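Table S7 (text form). Paired inputs.
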Amino acid sequence: MRTNRLGRSTVEVTELGFGGGPLGGLFEPLDDDTAAGALAAAWEHGIRYFDTAPHYGIGHSERRFGDFLRRMPRGEFTLSTKVGRILVPQDPAGRTDESFQVPATHRRVWDFSRDGVLRSVEDSLTRMGVDRVDVLFLHDTDVEDRFEAALREGWPALAELRSQGVVGAVGAGMRNTDLLTRFVRETDADVVMLAGRYTLLDQSALDGLLPACVERGVSVLAAAVFNSGLLAVDRPTEEARFDYAPVPPEVLRRAHRVADVCEAHGVPLPRAAMLFPLHHPAVAGVVLGMRSAEEVRRDVAAFEADVPAGLWDDLRGEGLLDERAPAPR
């Protein structure tokens, strides 16, 4: 599997990365054996970039990543996690976490201070049982007050860790393209992780973020390319989610129009959704959340298959792709 370097750093990622949200019990519970099988299948098929976060399953995802990756040669994979939330133990009292299907053993506390960043990194290393991570992201700074705290306090802490050689690359991950564009222009970040804003259904990152990344030499990792599952099947249904919420009727209609064009070219909708972001020169890789070995095998097969150039031309002709979206490289 091809690899690309992140910005001006020496860190490289495979073009297909493993996203850790589902391993934290996103949407549905997940047992340890199934999670381990998904990670093993990813490794078997050449995936060497693994991304997680404390937020995902209040530590479950990080623990499961560590259980698997500790057994692999450290120089052969790239590992990223995120900062901004501290996990504080609490009595679950029989409750399930509000965001993931796991017992509510911890609560999240927002903290982008220098001390908070350092504590978050130390906690993550302990949960994973590893001695280092390769990439750190400021996580979910989509709201203005959180963004200001992250930029003012969190960013200098990440830059310090990079200058000390503790991590190889640093950046931020969120959905808000305006704030992420500002982050790119006001820092010397190596990479940003963009969730759901450069996909077959939403190309708003072309307005400012992607041009800024090209100008500044910042790499983009495209996450949530299925927009929370809507594009993960050949024919989306009304029960599908879009950006973690029920799909609006107009978005569902647009998804079906995209699916019609894909079907005419004999291309499954998920395959087109995975490959589309990689056409942009700023995009270094696509990060997919996967929860089972079967899902990994299916996604890798789709990722490695060819897509006729005429598909993208027809999507543009139907007004479904922004004219500024680059053609396949």
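Next pair, protein 2 of 2.
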Amino acid sequence: MSWKGFFEGIQEFSEDILFAPFEALRFMELDNWWAANVMSWLFLAIGFVAFMYWMRELARINARGEEDRSQTSHSYLG
């Protein structure tokens, strides 16, 4: 097997398997805008949930007072 065959195999896997849902959604674009953008809405929702989780964790850490907030906590700050 050559390197060319290896990279063509990656290309075939990506186009035929990984991007198959996007190909199916591409055909719905003219019919329904909401269905065509379902992946964008999904990624947006995942990002929003992750952001809210991270903010809640930061608030918990801040409430417990575990973080060293002094200016000398890092040597490059002075």
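The first helix runs from residue 3 to 18.
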